[in-house]
Every structure is written in C-alpha cells, then in structure tokens.
Write a structure and sequence with these properties.
By secondary structure, the chain is an all-alpha fold. It has a domain of about 190 residues. About 60% of the residues lie in helices and about 0% in strands. It has 18 helices and 4 strands. The strands form 2 sheets. It has a two-stranded antiparallel ribbon with strand order 1-2. Strands 3-4 form a two-stranded antiparallel ribbon. Strand 3 and strand 4 form a beta hairpin. Helix 6 runs parallel beside helix 16. The chain is globular, with a radius of gyration of 23 Å. The chain starts with a helix and ends in a 5-residue tail after the last helix.
Length: about 575
C-alpha cells in the first residue's frame, strides 16, 4: 500500500462526492416531469414517442399494472434479442461472417443483458456480429438500466405520496430516463472514449504481421466499441465488446479513461441518493443513505487494497516486495498499466455497483481480496449498486432498520411519516430472502454434481467452491463478473445461470413494487418524540449494522469453506 495509491483513492472519492448533488438534482427534475435544459430539443421527441406508442402520458398506474408493463416489456425485448442471436449469420453488419449463436448460449446471453447482469459465457469478438452487439446487446444495456432507475423512482414516489393508488406510469418513466439521462450521457461519454483511441467503426478485423515473427499473423478486432463501452459503464451493465473487457486497450486505453470509467459506474447510483432526499423532502435522509453506501465502499476498497498489496505465497521468481519500478504485492491478474491500487479500486467499484466490468482477473486475486469482491455482491446491490437497483436495495434495508429501531423503543416504526406495518416488513424480508435462496441452493446442487458442475472447474478444493459460488452469486446479484477458472459455457450452466439471473432480477423487483404501492396508500403522520430520525449519523450506523449483520449471518458459513479456508491453507504452506 503506497501513498500514491491512497492519493488516487482520495481524489476519486472527492470527485465522486462533487457530482452527487448536480447529478441527483438533474435526475429528480427529469423523473418528476419538470423542464430541463434538454427539453427544447428532446421534448418534441418525447411527445412523438408517446404518440407513436399510444401512451397516455397523463395516466398513472397502480403497482400491479406497473409491474405487468415492466415484465411484459422485458419479456418481449428478451425474445427479440434471442431471435437476433440465432439468425445473425443471415443478417448484415457481420464482416467476420459469424454464424448463429448456439441455443443455450443465446438464451443465457439474452437473459443476461435483459436483467442488467451482462454475464458473458462467450468470447464476444468471435461470437457476436456487429449487428447483434449494437441492436441486441447495446440496446439492452440502455433498456435494462432504465428499468432499474424507474423501479427505484417508483419506490421513492410510494414513500413520498399519501393516500394514492398509483406510483407513476412505466412507459413515461422509461421514455424520460432513456431520452434525458442515458442517451445524452452516453453520447458525450462515447465521444470522449473515441478521442482517447477507442474504436467506433464497422470495419472488418485487421490482420497484422508481427515484426519478430512475420509468418504468424495476428487478428486485431475492430467494431462499434465506444458506443457500447459508454452505456456498459454508465448503465452499470459490464458486458464488454472484447473478451478482456476493460483490461483491453481498445476498451480502456489510458489512465484518464480508466479513472472516468470507474467514476461513471457510481455516477447515477450515487446521484440517486440526492434524488431520494429531494423527492421525499428530506435531504438529510438522502445524505445518510449515501454515507452508509460510501462507508461500505471505503471498507471494501481498503480490504482489497490491503490484501493485494501483500506478496502471494505461491508466486516465486516475481518481484513482490516493491521498488521504484515494480509495485509491491500480488500483480497476478492485474493489468500492468493500472497497478494494484487502480485494479483494487476498479474491482471494488464494479462489484459494489453490480456492474461486472473488470480491468483485472478476479480469479487471480488473493483469497481474501477475492472474498471481499464476492461479499460486495452478496450484500445485495446496496453499496451504490446498479443504476436504480442500488437505491431500492438499500431502501429495503432502510425499512428493516426502521422496523428494528421501532422494536427497540416499543413503538410502531415510522419512516418519513409512513407507519411500517406487517405487510411492509414481509415484502422487505421476501426481497432479502430470495437472493440467498437462489445462489446458495444452486451452488450446493452444482457442487454435488461432478459431471454437471465440477467438470467445468480449472481448480478444485476451496478455490473451486469459490468459483462456483461466485458464478451463482454474480448471476443472482445481476453483477456479471466472474472467477474465470470456471468454464460456464456448458448447457447446464448456461440454462441454470439464466434462470438465476431472471429470478434475481424480476422476483426481487415484485416485492419492491408491492412495497411502493402499499406505502403510497398510507396516510402521512407528523413525526413525534418517539419517531426514530432517519437523517442522523446514528441512523447511518444502524443501517450499516443491519446490512453487515444480515450478510454475515447468511453467508459466513459458505465463505468459511471457500476463500477463508483457502487463505488459511496458503499461509499454512499447503495447497489442496
């Protein structure tokens, strides 16, 4: 750990915190339907979309109708992407003449991009045509990110409204999010990426003749990379155009692009905490939620940076002690241009925010460093989380924290003027329980099936368990990053991981929308002397305690059999 590494982290944190208010205020204006500086240009486009799609913009929906519209829209777009993958060999914009994607892989990929997971069990540059990348995958990056944002805003509306049967209009929320937030943001970001050297073209791949071995030809992939890279990061999607993801110089060419890509992951999730405060009329509560997220993020980075800054006991002949020209610690799996500090920051941010993009290989991190990345996902998309998903995930824990505080003082718990009753707690607990049920049960099944689960492992013992556990955690948590020692491109893994992604996204969205609808119907009551304030440092500490204790009680047993045991074995000088 070096002063330079900590300086980079401090600079990132200051820059991130400086963006929270302007981004959050803009998001609030857009999602409340107020006028923005883009309205003179995009206002006519918005009205045209409503007219073409027969959307009644002034008609709002109950939570059941909102959920039905969301599920129907996602199902149709999923099937369209699946069909596009299956017939890409007969379609244009395919200069490499790539054939149809196999059925199980096409299903897995369509589900992955629909759910904002962006798990990739394939090599993109040798599997997907340009048309599939643009019209299928990049388009889904926009749509799935917008779905997360609108669900979060629906929950915030439910908190703010009183005695209301509706929580908004799904089609209006989606249109505004796409037109005023994601499209202009990604246009600017893509232009910046092009300026740093990221390709944006439809050319065929380039064949290069190396000077050392002229007879050994090298194929250099091209394509519309910048446009997909922009929404990949800003929408916390994570699906790379190339197999190496953000370790590839065409996706992440410079230190400046690396810094801005990390920042873009947190930009909208952090801004939404200010949106929460502004829309509910309690700015202090928004800052308290941001503080809880930020503390968890800082703890995670510190743990990963500390773990990766230590020499790896199994690496011999590599400089790990540090010098003026070589970084200290475990450089295995790190992209040499970034070093350990930037790799640790990227890995922490991408697992905190359900992004899944990587600029290093998580499978090569130390056992404790990899465990922190796994725990970041296991906590349930609450450390900033995916766009929208992080906010509504943390608000579920807010409801539980308020309920616990009410029990401690012997009063009916209240949250921003709304009484938290049995139905609200049931929906919150349903949300909390679905996630571990998916990942733990499926991990256990695949560990017990040698031909189906264990045959895909490059490693056995506790590290192999961690690889399987990470795969199902990443799928159910809609993260998309992986421990690359597991070959998940098999029929059983493709199909099962796809269902885990669907359940982790849509089964968990339904309790959120049900909670939003129930809160919207409640009458608001003024705070009293027994009301637990949700804008104080004490509330932030309570919220942190609820998140960490629930996570520890749920996942510590399996973590002790995986990364914890591997760490103890390594330091005992044994490898099983």
């Amino acid at each position: 750990m070096t002063s330079n590494g900590w300086l980079q982290f401090a600079f990132f944190c200051l820059f991130l915190l400086a963006t929270v208010r302007p981004v959050g205020a803009y998001l609030a204006r857009v999602l409340e339907g107020r006028r923005t500086w883009l309205h003179p240009v995009l206002g006519p486009c918005e009205r045209l979309v409503y007219r073409l799609c027969a959307v009644k913009a002034d008609r709002e929906m109950e939570w059941q109708e909102y959920a039905f519209a969301l599920l129907g829209f996602s199902a149709v777009s999923l099937l369209a992407t699946y069909a596009l993958e299956r017939v890409q060999g007969w379609l244009p914009f395919n200069p490499q003449h790539l054939g149809a994607v196999p059925p199980d892989l096409a299903w897995n990929t369509a589900v992955s991009f629909t759910t904002n997971t962006n798990w990739q069990a394939y090599t993109p540059e040798t599997t997907m045509s340009y048309l599939t990348q643009m019209a299928g995958l990049a388009t889904h990056n926009f749509l799935s990110a917008a779905v997360g944002i609108v669900v979060a805003i629906a929950l915030v509306r439910g908190i703010r409204r009183t005695e209301s049967d509706t929580i908004g209009n799904f089609w209006v929320d989606m249109t505004r999010t796409l037109l005023y937030v994601l499209l202009p943001g990604c246009l600017l970001f893509a232009l910046f990426l092009v300026s740093t050297g990221v390709p944006q073209n439809l050319h065929a791949y380039v064949t290069a003749h190396p000077l050392e071995l002229p007879s050994h030809l090298q194929t250099i992939a091209q394509g519309p990379v910048a446009s997909q890279e922009a929404i990949k990061m800003l929408g916390t999607n994570g699906g790379g155009f190339f197999n190496a993801n953000s370790a590839h110089p065409y996706e992440n060419p410079t230190p400046l692009s690396n810094f801005l890509e990390i920042l873009s992951i947190f930009l909208i999730p952090a801004g939404l905490t200010y949106t929460l405060g502004q829309m509910t009329g309690s700015h202090g509560h928004g800052w308290a939620v941001l503080a809880a997220m930020f503390v968890l993020f800082a703890m995670g980075f510190t743990a990963v940076y500390a773990a990766e800054s230590q020499p790896h006991t199994l690496l011999h002949g590599a400089a790990q002690t540090g010098s003026a020209t070589a970084p200290a610690g475990n450089m295995e799996g790190k992209e040499v241009r970034n070093g350990i500090a930037e790799s640790a920051l990227f890995a922490t941010a991408t697992t905190d925010a359900s992004c899944g993009a990587v600029n290093g290989m998580h499978d090569s991190y130390t056992p404790l460093g990899g465990m922190v990345l796994l725990v970041n996902i296991m906590l349930g998309e609450v450390i900033f989380g995916g766009v929208g998903a992080g906010l509504y995930g943390m608000l579920i824990f807010v409801v539980l924290a308020v309920f616990i505080a009410g029990l401690m003082v012997g009063r009916t718990p209240e949250y921003l003027g709304k009484k938290i009753e049995a139905y609200d707690v049931k929906m919150a607990m349903l949300y909390v329980l679905i996630f571990p049920l998916i990942l733990l049960s499926l991990s256990a099944v695949f560990v017990l099936l040698p031909k189906v689960g264990l045959s895909s492992l490059a490693n056995h013992g506790p590290h192999g368990l961690t690889e399987i556990l990470y795969a199902f955690t990443s799928a159910a948590g809609n993260n998309g990053s992986a421990f690359a020692g597991l070959n998940a491109n098999t029929w059983w893994y493709n199909v099962t991981l796809a269902w885990a992604m669907l359940a982790g996204r849509f089964l968990m969205l339904l309790p959120v929308l049900a909670l939003a609808g129930n809160l919207a119907k409640k009458r608001s009551t003024p705070p009293s002397t027994g009301t637990f304030p949700v804008h104080t440092p004490m509330f932030t500490v309570l919220l942190l305690g609820v998140v960490l204790i629930l996570g520890a009680l749920t996942f510590f047993p399996v973590l002790s059999l995986g990364p914890v045991l591997e760490h103890l074995q390594l330091h005992a000088g044994r490898l099983f």
